[in-house]
Design goal:
Number of strands: 0
Strand content: under 5%
Helix content: 40-55%
Order of helices and strands: HH
Shape: globular
Structural class: mainly alpha
Distance between the termini: 18 Å
Length: 39
C-alpha cells in the first residue's frame, strides 16, 4: 500500500462520488474503493 496520509485519502475520497453497492467493477475508482473499505 502506498504511504499516504489520512488527509490525502480523505481528499481523494471526497473528489469521487460514493458508489453504493455497485458490482460493476469498471465503475469503481480507487477513492470509491477506499470509501467502501473504511465503512
Amino acid at each position: 500500500m502506498p504511504n499516504v496520509t489520512n488527509a490525502e485519502i480523505t481528499l481523494a475520497a471526497s473528489k469521487d462520488p460514493v458508489i453504493a453497492d455497485n458490482n460493476d467493477l469498471t465503475t469503481l475508482t480507487a477513492p470509491s474503493l477506499i470509501q467502501r473499505a473504511m465503512r
